[in-house]
Amino acid sequence: MNTKHIPKFLSLVLRHNPDTLGITLDEQGWTEVDTLLQKMTSQGKKVTMDRLKEVVATNDKKRFAFNEDETKIRASQGHSVAVDLKYEAIMPPAFLYHGTVPKFLKDIQQQGLQKMSRLHVHLSEDRETALRVGARRGVPTILTIRSGAMHQDGYEFYKSENNVWLTDTVPADYINLK
């Protein structure tokens, strides 16, 4: 399997559709590495443990993680399947950022940011990351989220292993479009 296609395929399997390979994720999103590699090989997607380690280590978004002894693997966040990543709620910085495109702004102004099919809304610590995220769908617009105020008002925030901030929703009152 081409190295650049492995992260996309792993995202599909580990975040959205484990049935694609016929694997199961435990309640925290982990699956056995040996099983994953065997199932990939049986579907003609031969990937070695060394190549899998390389993908995990070099993925620009750090989307995947091994457990301590590298016998299990999971996606760090972005799931649309029910998992509990066991992230602890922590205090966010005063401001976080979200990249989007203009066609969604009217809905965002009315409804805020919703998790949609994912388990959480994804936010970034810096504008540059939010800009890259928004640019995947077109000309990006960066939203500034008053995350410190949200936290003071009782909203919980989590930080994934790859430094993505997660929350259940961002009401429109906490979003600055400028």
TrEMBL record:
Domain of life: Bacteria
InterPro entries referenced in this protein's UniProt entry, alphabetically: Ptrans_KptA/Tpt1 (IPR002745), RNA_2'-PTrans_C (IPR042081), RNA_2'-PTrans_KptA (IPR022928), RNA_2'-PTrans_N (IPR042080)
Record's keyword terms, sorted: NAD, Transferase
Record EC number: 2.7.1.-
Any GO molecular function: transferase activity
Pfam families in alphabetical order: PTS_2-RNA
HAMAP family: KptA
Family: Belongs to the KptA/TPT1 family.
Physiological role: Removes the 2'-phosphate from RNA via an intermediate in which the phosphate is ADP-ribosylated by NAD followed by a presumed transesterification to release the RNA and generate ADP-ribose 1''-2''-cyclic phosphate (APPR>P). May function as an ADP-ribosylase.
Full protein name: Probable RNA 2'-phosphotransferase
UniProt source species: Dokdonia ponticola
Gene behind this protein: kptA
